[in-house]
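Lab channel / #folding
Pinned by the channel admin:
"Please post every new chain as: sequence first, then the structure tokens as a reply. Keep commentary short and put observations after the output so the thread stays searchable."

First post following the new format, from NK:
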Amino acid sequence: MSDRIDSFSRRKFLATTALGAVAATIAMPSVLRAQGAGVKLGVLHPVTGALSYSGQQGRLGATLAIEEINAAGGIKALGGAKIEPVLGDAQSTPEGGNAEVEKMNSAGVAAIVGGYASSICLAVSQAAARYDLPYVVDVGVADNIVTRGLKNTFRFGPGFGVIAKTALNNLVAINNQAGKPAKTVMIVHEDSLFGSGLAKLLNAQLPQQGFQILETIPHPTPTRDFNNVVLKIKAQNPDIVIPANYYNEYVLVARTMQQQHVRPKGIYSVLGGAASSYKFVKEFPDAAKYIMDCNHWFDPRNPKALALKKKVEEKGQFYTYEVYMNYSCVLLVADAIGRAASADRAKVTAALESSTFAGHVMPYGPTKFVNGQNQGAAPVNTQVLDNDIKVILPPAFANGKPVFPMPA
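Reply from TO:
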């Protein structure tokens, strides 16, 4: 009899305990969230292949932001849930990017950040759209990334149209201020979506500003020898050379021009792959000297931007635009997840659509997306001066003055 009573008591105790656990689950969801799995975030970059340096820099910026968010207590609205990065390598190709989207979707990520190259971003945004998966573009500038009506795609930085218009306006202003010494231009561009699209815009708009385009020279990525290209530049002797290339090719163009003693009145980049790079300035200071660029840049007045720069340099890395663009994009997504109080993709997308995020490190105002494009995003003009990179335009951010034409 005693054994039967004991057995009944144990069954009753276990049943009561189970009911209590269910009640606790209902009463304390925030506690369980804090103890449960984190929020998975896709971090997608070309970390191998021709674009690997830029991809690795982008991954660095994204992971630094994730580390900071987690160290500060995670996503507060989800009980302190930590962000768990799901790292992907696009292998410098659109196909590689698409394959990573499939993996990330299967892994259950709440959103994806990155892409870097326009061609990769174009493919990845389409692939992510099949799963209603929010995708935040870090760098890719081709305007058709955000003009196809994809509700899942958001670009934090400026696109081709804004950058080209700003670059041309600033080139005209710099040239006018110097007494209009420059009249002829040659364009050297890589032949993918980024370079070809930019060259098309420049060919349409430069003549309207009074510049004669002597020649436009495309090249593939990668390209290991620019001697013939530079010989063409030397023969035609343009006042301005406009390179539009990724990092490795940009450096090679500039170094080959230096070696062949080609010295135009100005090297004026639009989204130059190396022109706004501390790595380029440190490793090849003579080739980099006086090069101007219209590109992504951080806000030099922002203490948070300067603190991030110090952290990156203490790691032995260069503070490139891929770093702070991706850093800001991750903060943007974390803010959206926090305001949505959910990792549900539809809710995160809605939160991004209504974002007013201003905690970034860029020379932008608060984020405002219209058809997926951040209306507050804008490039700045930089120039390599005194072995440093200075902002020369707009005046609100400038810490240097343009030197043009380049000294002989």
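NK: The longest strand covers residues 212-219.
TO: also worth noting, The two ends are 107 Å apart (CA to CA).
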